[in-house]
Amino acid sequence: MRIGVFVCHCGTNIGGMVDSHQVAEEAKQFPHVVYATDYLYTCSEPGQQEIQEAIKGHALDGVVVAACSPRMHENTFRRTIERAGLNRYMFEMANIREHCSWIGENKEANTRKAIELVRMAVAKVANNVHLHSSLFDVNKRVLVIGGGVAGMQAALDCADGGLDVILVEKKSSIGGRMAQLDKTFPTVDCSICILGPKMVDVAQHDNIKLYTYAEIEEIAGYVGNYTARIRKKTPYVDWAKCTGCGLCMEKCPSKQSFDYHNEGITPTTAINIPFPQAIPKKAKIDPEYCRQFTKGKCGVCAKVCPVGAINYEMEDEIITEEVGAIIVATGYGLLNIEELGEYGAGRYPDVITGIQYERMLNASGPTQGHVQRPSDGEEPKRVVFISCAGSRDVSLGRPYCSNFCCMYIAKQAILTKDHIPNSDVYVFYIDIRSPGKGYEEFTRRAQEEYGVQYIRGRVSRVFPKGKRIVVRGVDTLLGGQMEIEADLVVLATAATAAPGAEELAEKLRISYDGYGFYMESHPKLRPVETNTSGVFLAGACQGPKDIPASVGQGSAAASKVLALFSKDQLASDPQIALVNERRCIGCFKCVDTCPFGAIEEKELRDGQKVAHVIETVCQGCGLCTSTCPPGAIQLQQCTDNQIIAEVEALCQAWRERSSG
Amino acid sequence: MKARRYAYYPGCSQKGTAVEYEMSARAVAKELGIQLVDVEDWSCCGSTPAHTVDHLLYGALAARNLAIAERMKLGTVVTPCPSCLIAFKSALAMAQNAETLEELNELINLPFKGTITAKSLLQVIFEEIGVDVLAEKVEKPLTGLKFAPYYGCILTRPPGLAQFDDAENPVSMDKILAALGAEVPDFPFKTECCGAAFGLSRRDIVQTLSAKVLEMAEAIEADALVVACPLCHQNLDLRQDQINSYRGSRREMPIFYITQLIGLALGFSPKDMGMDKHAVSSEDVLKKWEANLKERTE
Fold first, then answer.
1. Which of A93, A170, B200, B279 has the fewest CB neighbours in a 10 Å radius?
2. B147 and B188 share one domain
């Protein structure tokens, strides 16, 4: 074997703390190495050219680049050697930057470590074999999970691009959080007026198949060929017949159901359509409160329904859809107000959340757009907003900023002044975070034009005093404690991961952070990709974000799917597990271990059962290889023999050093 | 009933200003089948003076007592005083670090492993006896009395260390008092500060902060405040006179220890519960209670 070694300086990133030249000189002594050199920026065009010339000039059949993490440039160099005629898998990278120069403070020791890393990489590449990708067909349909503004945007862009879209929404109507909002910042546009047309577009698009009141049961398969099992929850109403006339709601005698759309400010009927602009505008029954279910008799809705759509016997339905890619847009949840004991939340009726206040401001909300104290229905004269209620709070395990609260507080403060012109409005804040376009101007307008009192400081306690609520906090600019007697207190409760986010992540096999928000593939450069090929993210499921950012991500995710589907076939990664059928004893421990369901039982001609890896499903994680008792299953390009060769090379280095 | 044995560390207040807490705590524990075995030769837990001066010394003072308690092999040390409790919990948290544990061992010259559990007597009653059992044992319910449960600052905080009840809205005493038959309105100042040890150096702070607690109890029309901390009791009861002259008020709000009220309900006499040891007389409240009881039985 003829191996070439190329050691990068990466300017001073590596060169400052590792003697790259010495590394290259030492590498010349290693077995199979016929050429070694160092260069300032190996990834640059001349750097790559040098590799290609060396492959030709020295008849190399294996290449080692000692530079940064393979996560950065492995693909770059694979393409480089491929262009020079080598198989792209006859290549290894020694990470002498992240694993060496960036972390060690002793240049001499770093250099020694770099030499050892290169030596291991050389030993590995000497055992590499030519691998070849195979091609497989792509199913050009896309599943979008979540019908909020991000999911709707993604669905519309994909559908406009000619793809068949399956849109699944948990609630009975699409629209998500944005449908709950009264106005949007900083333009103070009517939220449903700008969202409504999009919702109609989704409903009427020929390429979009909409499943509302439905949830993902199971996802199987791999990029290009996913199978989704979807549970259509029963609404106990035949939606093919239901016209959304609302007569059932008018007549329903049970009026105790939790009204999710109105955040529980007032209850709703057991049979309900969530809001006037709902899409689809169909009724569903909440069996927890419906008298037909709780008492076994009622049947009022069935009697009044002019089209006979009510069906108490209806059951959940499981549907299977085949798709090639998935966009996850499941949005966010809000912190349970009762976790904020110091604000008396959950105990004092006149301490409410921002989203509840938003519903109250809305003309089609539970109070028809009149701001009222939940305790006595009176119009509040003094409203206090508390920002960061549960956000930026290490003691609650939520140190992050919820992103959009500063802005919606400013908006709600302005709206309060519009609704109740002679009211006093106070905002307690830590910092005003308004970095969007037109955002800073907006928060200043709240203060300067509308006279909203901004107090920099946190609130320590909220407690009732007669009919009013006292908000006690600190004013850090004046340097003292202050108390405000308010009529209504609005908490900007922290944005959290959507309920059930973690379970869905397990089904999709994507990762999530400590708070339950989904992890993007790279925080800067791959913001809508996940580490599971073919699964993309949009909107606040990845972290709290406002409407423009969510819409942007929806479009971004759609463009990623369109790019993926621009090819009829995809190439599989050949670095996967492979079973040596002669060694396999058929214990199938690997089948149980594989997190991707990529291993199946296979019967040989002699009737013996062995494990078999489904090439396109295997992600090359290697779990099976460490489970297999006889070592019959091996991860290509990371075989036991290759690992042993690397360890051997490292031990050899230490033996040489200790013997002097 | 299963016999429960615990190492018992009374703390200095129990022997002085809070002698009625000690009397009632021991009596109630015995009645509830909680056997308190005194830690021999116990010394100061360190309290506020130690941790404001030297954190390691603070740990060592507590560790000495914990080391003796560990030797008793009872698994848990119980103290009625939140300040002692937090000193113990701090020392046990410090002992998680092997290096610090070694330093502590060196300082106290006793084998200290840091494996014992520290709990307040309130926690033991609330979590291990439970309000249901307590309710069953009530002989003279506290019917018709309205109490404001006051937890103070460190019984449940910092939450990471205290590991008991809700840090901002604790409910253990609320539930106990309700089980005893008392009326327990929502008391918004449950965890406000009474001024604590500032009673010595900045009396005005205690007079302001404790006054707010008393005023709030009065605002919710409570007959009395209920505490589980000797220092809170001292500030609210012993200094109530000072607070009155400082604020120009004329309030007489009795301050009970939670164990005193449990004892009353279980059938102990007011005298056995040390009701006569308070600075602010509880006579009126007790008379009201006795009248209520009489009315109930007739």
1. B200
2. yes
pTM assigned to the model: 0.84
Residues 638-657 of A with CB under 8 A from B: none
Measured distance CA(A654)–CA(A78) in Å, rounded = 30
Backbone angles phi, psi at B123, to 5 degrees: -60, -40
Full domain range(s) for residue A267: 234-315
Instruction: Please state, in angstroms and as integers, the Cα–Cα distance from residue B282 to each residue in A420, A642, B203, B259, following that order.
Output: 49, 83, 25, 15
Length of chain A: 660
**Which of A129, A123, A108, A118 lies closest to A36 in space, CA to CA?**
A118
Whether residue B33 lies within 8 A of chain A, CB to CB, comes out as: no
Distance from CA of B189 to the nearest CA of A (A): 8
DSSP symbol at A594: -
Report CA-CA distances (Å) from A16 to A22, A40, A95, A537: 13, 11, 15, 39
Token pair listed for B129 = 């006896």
Biggest distance spanned by C-alpha atoms of chain A: 96
**3-state class of A192 per DSSP?**
helix
What number of H helices and E strands is found in chain B? 15, 7
Radius of gyration of chain B (CA): 19
Eight-state DSSP code of residue A236: S
Contacts of A341 in chain B (CB under 8 A): 166-169
Q: Tell whether B104 and B199 lie within a shared domain.
A: no
Phi–psi pair at A438, nearest 5 degrees: 80, 5
Q: What is the CA radius of gyration of chain A?
A: 31
Q: Any idea what DSSP says for residue A194?
A: H
Residue A441's H or E segment, with its range, is: helix A439-448
Of the listed ranges A165-169, A292-296, A337-341, A428-432, the least confidently predicted one is: A337-341
A461 contact residues in B (CB cutoff 8 A) = 188-189, 192
Distance of alpha carbon A611 from alpha carbon A580, whole angstroms: 9
How many domains, chain B? Answer: 2
Across A89-113, average pLDDT: 96
Host domain of residue B291: 137-297
Partner-chain contact A463 B216, CB within 8 Å:
yes
The band of A373, judged by pLDDT with boundaries at 50, 70 and 90, is very high
Integer Cα distance of A128 and B130 in angstroms = 67
Q: For chain A, what is the total number of helices (H) and then of strands (E)?
A: 19, 32
Specify the number of domains making up chain A.
5
Domain-terminating residue out of B97, B121, B145:
B121
| C-beta of residue A80 within 8 angstroms of C-beta of residue A42 | no
- pLDDT above 60: residue B1: no
A473 touches chain B (CB under 8 A): no
Q: Judging by DSSP bridges, how do beta strands A271-272 and A284-285 pair with one another? A: antiparallel
Q: For the purposes of burial, counting CB atoms within 10 Å of the CB of A449, is it exposed (0-12), middle (13-18) or buried (19 or more)?
A: exposed
Please indicate, yes or no, whether residues A207 and A283 belong to a single structural domain of this protein.
no
Residues of chain B contacting A463 with CB distance shorter than 8 Å: 188-189, 216
Query: Which structure tokens are listed for A172?
Result: 């009975």
Neighbours of B4 (CB within 10 A): 17
Peptide bond into A287 cis (omega under 30): no
B291 in contact with A, Cβ within 8 Å: no
Which structure tokens are listed for A551?
A: 């819409």
**CATH number for the domain that contains residue A78:** 3.40.50
3-state SS class at A218: strand
The predicted-structure confidence for B82-121, as pLDDT tens digits, reads as follows 999 999 999 999 999 999 999 999 999 999 999 999 999 9
Give, as one character, the DSSP assignment of residue B191. T
Amino acid at A1: M
Q: Under a CB-based contact definition with an 8 Å cutoff, are residues A159 and A138 in contact?
A: no
| Contact yes or no for A63/A55 (Cβ under 8 A) | yes
* Residue B128 counted as domain residue: no
Q: Is the pLDDT of residue A69 over 80?
A: yes
